[in-house]
Write a structure and sequence with these properties.
The protein has 650 residues and is an alpha+beta fold. The protein is 32% helix and 32% strand. A six-stranded mixed sheet has the order 7-8-6-9-10-11, sandwiched between helices. It has a six-stranded antiparallel beta barrel with strand order 13-14-20-17-16-21. Strands 26-27-32-29-28-33 form a six-stranded antiparallel β-barrel. It is globular and about 80 Å long. It starts with a strand and ends with a strand. 36% of the residues are buried. The chain binds guanosine-5'-diphosphate (GDP).
């Protein structure tokens, strides 16, 4: 029976490592850490109850039973990646209904988001169609060729706290390269490089830090196979060390710990090991399964061993890529060079990229004019996991964009133009949502005749009072249509509903959660919160008359979590907080939120770090906070930090 590391299992089952560990522990299994191994078949049984079921079985089962009826269904060609709105039009249903049905299937999508092939198939069947998903780019052909795979080098990212030696290590490793010595030690910084160790290659991403790592991931590019966590032996585990661990785990990338600066007299590698154990990274010598290597990047001690360990972990991952397939990969860096035009560093993920190949890169395209490797040499070919700089594109693509080869330049151009058009369309649809300020104008232009509202409040009573007051407003020109009300904070689903129906979302004495905020911003949904009914009604009244022009607006600075509370004599209650996003400034205002309800709003009275008053504290750090006239912090409270600024006239 095959034992696999938990993160590999999680990947196999297409779930989060944490979720997997939680589920296993819940059913009484002994799972000491995220890095433990576990029997695959047993995990499958626990997770999916019956032996033979696969992770997606509930959906698949549905599909299989429907397969039998397929013959009677009407055939329908549906473009790959169709957005909900277009799909709704195609099947002749209102978008709201499609969104509702998708939610039932467990897919939360807004009107402008792409549907997965699975969702298209199942939903179409339930509507009486047999969906044939057609790929606009015929990328299907290349999926078929994928069977022939061969080993490829691992791609490594170096992470860790600032000043712990990431850059020094990247430079030192580069200098170990045999091939580089043959080249006379000339290096080219192109965003990534490869070294050879005992005849095997390793690719390093040349931007240290987890921000770059996560930014890539946010754009959908998962390129790192192994994370090397650098921890200075004289400094120990610091906030960014912990962040790096969290980021690597979220991406399900195995971690190798490099304890650096062991040449320093005050180096204490044992202490670092102890500290990391508390974060689930247990060295093998202590019965765990995390690889630790003690190094000095500066004196180049033990670098060989580190490289060896990287190759060992890589071997365990059995990294493979198809070579005989249409080349694909990701943009790592891009810039516009005066003489050479767009210069783009790409990492080939599959296939062999050759000079002269027409390619599509994000929204741009071109024919590869030349390729230069990390040693500055012109190369004709680039293999999987190899970084190269390429020339010949028509514009500069964004870092994180995907590229793939196509048969001719004309096709490349066509695909790139279609993609650009699609992006513009999506942006236009997004812009169509309106804000209260635009209401009157839209009505005048005949684009709108009613104002749709979603109202969330702290109690039924307050919602009734608001509804009552709204019905008393003059509605001859604009009709008010309250499409949804509810008690509780504003959730992502409320905003989705707002997006799907072009409504304004209003919160009375409640706040949006983080997901709701992010979505509202992305979908351009007007989301307003009030604490006084009169103000809410007045805003709507003047908006209907076209007079709404607020001069001030709230700018969110950051978000805190209360982790502990203290009583300090004469001063009062202090909240020990963790800054989970953005920052907190001592001249800002704070809003205390408990279970989605606003408990208090007021000015920050003091902000401290390690007993010292400070101006501001950034995300990832802890601080002590007091709010004027407030003594009722509870552990688990959330605090929103904001400033009220004059609104820019656009
Ligand atoms: P980064 O911010 O993590 O990229 O850290 P740097 O690579 O810039 O290194 C920060 C400082 O630590 C620099 O002054 C380096 O010279 C020093 N440093 C890095 N590695 C070592 C080491 O192994 N030993 C000693 N003594 N100093 C080191």
């Amino acid at each position: 029976m095959a034992k696999l590391k938990l993160h590999q299992l999680a990947k196999k089952f297409n779930m989060d490592s944490k979720e997997l560990v939680d589920k296993l522990r819940k059913s009484g299994e002994d799972v000491p850490s995220f890095h433990s191994t576990f029997d695959e078949e047993k995990a499958r049984q626990i997770l999916f109850k019956e032996k033979s079921e696969s992770p997606h079985s509930p959906k698949l089962e549905k599909k299989e039973s429907k397969d039998k009826e397929k013959k009677s269904l009407e055939k329908l060609k549906i473009p790959e990646g169709i957005v909900v709105k277009d799909y709704a039009q195609l099947v002749g249903k209102p978008p709201n209904e499609i969104i509702k049905r998708l939610i039932e299937l467990g897919e939360l999508l807004t009107i402008n988001q792409s549907m997965s092939p699975e969702a298209i198939t199942i939903l179409s069947e339930s509507l009486g169609y047999e969906a044939e998903i057609v790929s606009p780019f015929q990328e299907r052909i290349l999926e078929e060729e994928e069977s022939e795979v061969a080993p490829r080098p691992p791609v490594v990212t170096i992470m860790g706290h600032v000043d712990h030696g990431k850059t020094t290590l990247l430079d030192a490793i580069r200098k170990t390269d045999v091939a580089l010595k043959e080249f006379g030690g000339i290096t080219q910084h192109i965003g990534a490089y490869q070294v050879e160790h005992h005849g095997k290659r390793i690719t390093f991403i040349d931007t240290p830090g987890h921000e770059a790592f996560t930014a890539m991931r946010a754009r959908g590019a998962k390129i790192t196979d192994i994370a090397v966590l650098v921890v200075a032996a004289d400094d120990g585990v610091m906030p960014q060390t912990i962040e790096a661990i969290d980021h690597a785990r979220a991406a399900q990338v195995p971690i190798i710990v490099a304890i650096n600066k062991i040449d320093k007299p005050d180096a204490n590698p044992e202490k670092v090991k102890q500290q990391l154990t508390e974060h689930g990274l247990v060295p093998e010598e202590w019965g765990g399964d995390t690889v630790f290597v003690s190094i000095s990047a500066k004196e180049r001690t033990n670098l060989e061993e580190l490289l060896e360990m990287i190759l060992l972990v890589a071997e365990f991952q059995e990294l493979k890529a198809p070579y005989k397939t249409r080349p694909r990969g990701v943009v790592i860096e891009s810039k516009l060079d005066k003489g050479r035009g767009p210069v783009v560093t790409v990492l080939v993920e599959r296939g062999v990229l050759k000079v002269g190949t027409p390619i599509v890169v994000g929204l741009t395209y071109g024919k590869i004019r030349a390729m230069i490797d990390d040693k500055g040499a012109n190369v004709e070919k680039a293999f999987p996991a190899q970084p190269v700089e390429l020339l010949g594109l028509s514009a500069v693509p964004e870092a994180g964009s995907e590229f793939f080869a196509v048969s001719d330049e004309k096709e490349a151009r066509k695909i790139a133009e279609e993609r650009a058009l699609k992006k513009r369309l999506i942006q236009e649809i997004r812009r169509k949502h309106f804000t209260l300020e635009q209401l009157y104008q839209k009505v005048e232009e005949g684009e709108l005749s009613e104002l749709k509202l979603i109202i969330k409040g702290d109690t039924h009573g307050s919602i009734e009072a608001i509804k009552d007051a709204l019905t008393k407003l003059d509605q001859t020109k604009v009709k008010i249509n309250i499409i949804h009300t509810g008690v509780g904070g504003i959730s992502e689903t409320d905003v989705m509903l707002g997006a799907a129906s072009d409504a304004v979302v209003i919160g009375f004495n409640v706040r949006p959660d983080q997901n709701a905020k992010v979505l509202a911003k992305k979908e351009n949904i007007d989301l307003r919160t009030y604490r006084v009914i009169y103000q809410l009604i007045e805003d709507i009244q003047v908006a209907m008359k076209g007079l709404l022009a607020p001069e001030f607006e709230e700018v969110e600075l950051g978000h805190l979590e209360v982790r502990a509370t203290f009583k300090v004599s004469k001063i009062g209650q202090v909240a020990g907080c963790y800054v989970s996003s953005g920052k907190v400034a001592n001249d800002a205002q704070a809003r205390v939120i408990r279970d989605g309800n606003i408990i208090f709003e007021g000015k920050i009275a003091s902000l401290r770090r390690f007993k010292e008053d400070v101006r501001e504290v950034k995300a990832g750090l802890e601080c002590g906070l007091r709010i004027e006239n407030f003594q009722d912090f509870k552990e688990g409270d959330e605090i929103e930090i904001f400033k009220v600024v004059e609104k820019k006239v656009t």
